[in-house]
Design goal:
There is one protein chain. By secondary structure, the chain is mainly beta. The protein has four domains: 392 residues, 3-Layer(aba) Sandwich (Rossmann fold); 77 residues, Immunoglobulins (Immunoglobulin-like), CATH 2.60.40.10; 73 residues, Immunoglobulins (Immunoglobulin-like, Sandwich); 140 residues, no CATH class. The chain contains seven helices and 38 strands. Helix 3 runs parallel beside helix 4 and helix 4 runs parallel beside helix 5. The protein starts with 20 loop residues before the first strand and ends in a 9-residue tail after the last strand.
């Protein structure tokens, strides 16, 4: 009979954030629990093996290992026997140089059977067995044996401590000779494939430990199938699984029929054979291959309810075979998190009690590999157990009122501020009550509240209370400030007509002002009582209650109609005698203006009724010899033309008849045409006030023809 051993824990931690539910109402129980898989008729089963239902977990807080087994077909508590069946024919010598341990380097560590050749196919087969066996370490009620085959097969002696051939070790990690290595590993490392004598002379094909067994070179699948049947036939009431590894195919067609018969017998016995086609020269896993020899490996797996796996790169065999799960099982979840499952369906998870303690239910669910292609629905079965996590001491909550807040004033009625205590927490995950208090608004409940705050700094206190009445406080400072100036618009610019020389009064209007926080900012301006002629810039200023100021400018313009009366006289206003000299003339001008008591006057133009600058003629001017007689006004009888002296004096003064030599002074030439009526000089005077308004007048200075009693003028 198969012996059992105590399980040793090789555990897989649960993902962080394990979802837990308090135990209420009916539960599935620890199991074993089973349900039928509709597509195959097999039972899907699960059992939680440790800890016991209702176990007490030390707190606060405590952790415990959850272990169980999920199976398809047999019940989870059925003992399991495994057979590793390895092809040791000479073809497993080639290729060599394979990285069987997948560490990136081909070296002595890839020589798993210590035969002197690194990385043969056989080395990779041995490494696959070692990986699978290691993944099962600690699994309860699991025993293992080993068969080698080529043309024929031999069952290895697996126990060095018991006389005679022992097909199965007491467990996968049994170490009967106490050398620190599992017995099954020692046997696997002693396999030989008949290396040429140049490496190890006369080395047979077979197994050396613990009793040497030799097989004949070649490949025949019926021989190992028969050995599998012989090993499992006495153990039919247990779960029996074989792992069949070969790099070749059935060489003789005569062996095909016996192999199929044996596969059928194994199926009847309830033995599952999982086959592996290893390397590029293997038969593959096509059960419908035209060459029946190539289809045989897949057919053996199909007939016995196993799987056929093709591993073209032998260095990948270890990870593939160690990662195998029971056929028909998809996965296992513990409290919603997927956990690792080994080849016999064992799983483990680390459970940590919640800080709050209490009775907690842990649930494991096994899912069949029968997902509906449309809906994804799968057959599943659950097992659960209750754990007593005790009653943890209450831990006070932690209040968090949030950071201090500084805001710009938004309204004269107060600035709305949101207070949020969502950062508060309770180590025991207790629900919290929130109470806000402040001199501004009194008190208010809620995680988050919104209240108006005035300008200035205000303190706010948050108090949180847990279910046990324990409290914690946190405070923050709310500062509302007004840093923005009012929005000021001055009245429109204004143009006035001058009213008096003392200035002009005016209603200049009212500025418009708004402010975010001050409903009525103070407004002022620097306008004078009376506006002088010209442009005056009036500065308007608005100041809010926080002292922020804004300024704007209005232009007030005062204009006038100019001087209303301009009077002027010339001294002298007559020039005599007409001696061709430039005579100084002074203008006296006076003007009045509504806007300017002081008006500036000046000569702006001079004109004469006699064209040209030389008015003397051949007829004389009546002043010199040959000119007109001063006494009687008659034409002189002298023979000269009268122009000689005049031309000389004119040339001496640049030939001009007038020269303006001051604002109101000029010189006029005392000269007239002796044949005319006399000369009149018209002098134009302009007077300008401070606003630039101008008034004009004219004054006449005459040079008479003569001064006789009967003169023309």
């Amino acid at each position: 009979m198969l012996s059992t051993s105590e399980r040793h824990g090789q555990l897989t931690p649960l993902a962080a954030g394990l979802a837990l539910t308090l135990a209420t109402g009916a539960t599935a129980g620890a199991g074993p629990n089973s349900t039928s898989i509709p597509s195959t008729g097999q039972d899907l089963s699960i059992q939680l093996t440790a800890p016991a239902d209702g176990a007490v977990v030390p707190v606060p807080p405590g952790s415990i290992d959850i272990t169980g087994r999920a199976t398809v077909g047999e019940a989870p508590d059925t003992p399991t026997n495994l057979l590793y069946v390895l092809d040791v024919s000479s073809s497993t010598e080639d290729p060599q140089g394979l990285d069987c341990n997948a560490d990136g380097t081909v070296d002595v560590l890839d020589d798993f059977n210590a035969a002197g050749a690194y990385g043969e196919v056989l080395d990779c087969e041995v490494q696959g067995v070692l990986s699978l066996n290691q993944s099962l370490a600690g699994s309860a009620d699991v025993a293992a044996g080993l068969i080698v085959f080529a043309r024929d097969a031999a069952t290895a002696d697996i126990d060095p401590a018991v006389p005679g051939d022992q097909v199965f070790a007491t467990s996968v990690d049994a170490d009967a000779n106490g050398n620190g290595l599992p017995d099954i590993d020692e046997v696997a490392r002693s396999l030989r494939n008949g290396l040429p004598p140049t490496i190890l002379p006369d080395l047979p094909i077979g197994v050396e430990e613990f009793a040497p067994k030799v097989v004949t070179n070649g490949t025949d699948f019926s021989a190992p199938l028969a050995a599998i049947y012989d090993a499992f036939e006495p153990l039919a009431e247990y779960r029996n699984i074989a792992y069949f590894l070969t790099d070749g195919f059935q060489t003789a067609t005569a062996g095909i029929a016996p192999a199929l018969i044996l596969a059928d017998e194994l199926a009847r016995l309830g033995v599952q054979v999982n086959t592996y086609s290893v390397g590029p020269n293997g038969s593959g896993c096509d059960a419908g291959a035209a060459d029946i020899r190539l289809a045989l490996l897949a057919q053996i797996a199909d007939m016995t309810g196993g799987t056929c796996t093709e591993i073209r790169d032998p260095s990948q065999l270890g990870s593939a075979i160690a990662g195998a799960v029971p056929v028909g099982l998809d996965r296992v979840e513990v409290d919603g998190s997927t956990v690792d499952v080994n080849a016999v369906g064992d799983f483990a998870a680390r459970f940590t009690c919640p800080a709050s303690g209490g009775i907690v239910t842990v649930t494991a669910v096994a899912f069949a590999d029968d997902a509906d292609p449309v809906t994804g629905a799968q057959t599943s079965i659950a097992a659960d157990l209750s754990l007593d996590c005790g009653t943890a001491a209450n831990t006070p909550p932690l209040a968090d009122a949030g950071p201090d807040q500084t805001l710009e004033c938004a309204s004269p009625d107060g600035t709305q501020v949101t207070l949020n205590g969502g950062g508060s927490s309770d180590p025991d995950d207790d629900p919290l009550d929130y109470l806000w208090s402040s001199a501004v608004f009194g008190s208010a409940d809620g995680v988050s509240i919104t209240r108006p705050f005035p300008i200035g700094s205000s303190s706010v206190l948050l108090t949180v209370t847990d279910d046990d009445g324990e409290q914690d406080d946190d405070s923050l400072l709310v500062t509302v400030r007004d840093t923005l100036a009012p929005d000021l618009t001055p009245p429109p610019d204004l143009t006035l007509t001058c009213a008096s020389t003392g200035g002009t009064s005016a209603d200049i209007g009212t500025a418009t002002v708004t402010d975010a926080c001050d409903a009525a900012p103070a407004v002022s301006n620097d306008a004078p009582a009376l506006f002088s002629t010209g442009d005056t810039l009036v500065t308007w200023t608005a100041t809010d209650s926080a002292g922020n100021t804004a300024s704007a400018v209005q232009t007030v313009s005062v204009v006038g109609d100019g001087p209303t009366q301009v009077d002027a006289t010339a001294t002298p206003d007559q020039l005599w005698p007409p001696n061709h000299e430039l005579v100084p003339v002074t203008i006296a001008a006076a003007a009045t203006s509504a806007c300017d008591a002081t008006v500036a006057c000046r000569i702006v133009a001079v004109s004469s009724n006699e064209s040209g600058t030389n008015a003397c003629s051949a007829r004389g001017d009546g002043h010199r010899n040959g000119d007109h007689s001063e006494e009687n006004g008659d034409q002189g009888r002298g023979g000269g033309d009268g122009c000689g002296e005049g031309n000389r004096k004119r040339n001496a003064t640049g030939g001009q008849d007038w020269i303006i030599d001051g604002d109101l002074t000029l010189r006029l030439r005392a000269e007239r045409d002796g044949r005319g009526e006399g000369r009149d000089y018209v002098i134009e005077i302009a007077c300008e006030d401070a606003a630039g308004n101008i008034g004009t007048t004219e004054v006449t200075v005459s040079v008479t023809h003569d001064q006789g009693k009967h003169g023309k003028r």
